[in-house]
What does this fold into?
Amino acid sequence: MEIGIIGLPGVGKTTLFNIVTRNCVKTGSFSASAGPNLGVATVPDARLAWLSDFFKPKKTTYATINFVDVAGLMEGAAKKDGFSAQVLGHLRAVDALVHVVRAFPDPAVPHPAETIDPARDIRTVDAELLLGDMAVAEARVARLREDIAKHRNRAQAEKELAVLERILARLEAEQPIRGLEFTEDAQRMIKGYTFLTAKPMIYALNLGEGQAFTPEMLAGLPLEERDGVTLVNGHPLIAFQGKLEEEIAQLPAEDVSEFLEAMGIEEPAAHRLIRLCYYALDVIAFFTVGEDECRAWTTKRGDTAPAAAGRIHSDLERGFIRAEVFRYDDLRRLGSIQAVKEAGLFRVEGKTHLVEDGEILNIRFNV
Ligand SMILES: Nc1nc2c(ncn2[C@@H]2O[C@H](COP(=O)(O)OP(=O)(O)O)[C@@H](O)[C@H]2O)c(=O)[nH]1
Ligand SMILES: [Mg+2]
It folds into this structure.
């Protein structure tokens, strides 16, 4: 799972990258020219900590998410000569975008548009993403029309053209692709284009120290609450104090809670952001446990047991026989695997089992 951090220059992308990956990459104007930063974030999970305490394995392995901090998007980037090939190449591969938006006032950090206006910046960058996708779709439509005219692979080209024309109409209406429903066939056809507006996105609003989020900061944009998450334009929003959180991320673990309390911060931004990534990507965590290793894994919500097993190793998917399944909650509540079994909550499941968040799986396989 990989997340791309995007936004205008100087908004705090590299700062956020440092926060989630606990890196110390240099920020400021330096960070714009230096190539993309690649880092790994550990997914905090109190359940795995408990399991590790319970099973006392030799090794405890948390799930991870990769983050890519690419260079800033400039207004007009898509129009001029498209996003730079390097930026596009990195963004192509990501599963979701975190779009950093500046709310912090600081005369020492120049803003390309000179004033601080998060709603305007959201519109600017979202428009660049739309234009970038439009350029890709238009080029492809032109190619397909040519193919059809020259009777090259005509049947297939006509099918793909219908899909791309739908996409183009959507983009011309200034709507992102991600709201469209596609057949599986159509999904396969467009997968290779890796449209940016087809990816899930999170807005990360970078506040100044002591600055609180107010809806007025995003005046004019549709705001709503769902599942305890604030959505802007339908995308989850996280507001964080970048500079402060960057300091927190560098603290030794034992000092963090005291510092958070002193600053009136309930939970570090890194944790909140990673939770939002799970929400936006619609993925869940499951666990494997044992004497050697307790480990958290990530899989798509709705994945079958063999698909989830495939996240561990392709052999486990290919040779899947059955899964022994019980729930973290039940183990914690009942205190032992034996008690879970006695309560009838230890199940043997087949290939059609849909894995749920918090399940502990033991995969039986044969290759
Ligand atoms: N005052 C203040 N400065 C910040 C904050 N976040 C980032 N900065 C500063 O803004 C500048 C640009 O940040 P950086 O993360 O490099 O932005 P990027 O260009 O989007 O990667 C740096 O000098 C940061 O220290 C913040 O929350 N408050
Ligand atoms: Mg940067």
User: Anything to note?
Assistant: Residues 118-149 form the longest helix (32 residues). The chain has two domains: 2-279, 302-365. The chain has a mean pLDDT of 91.
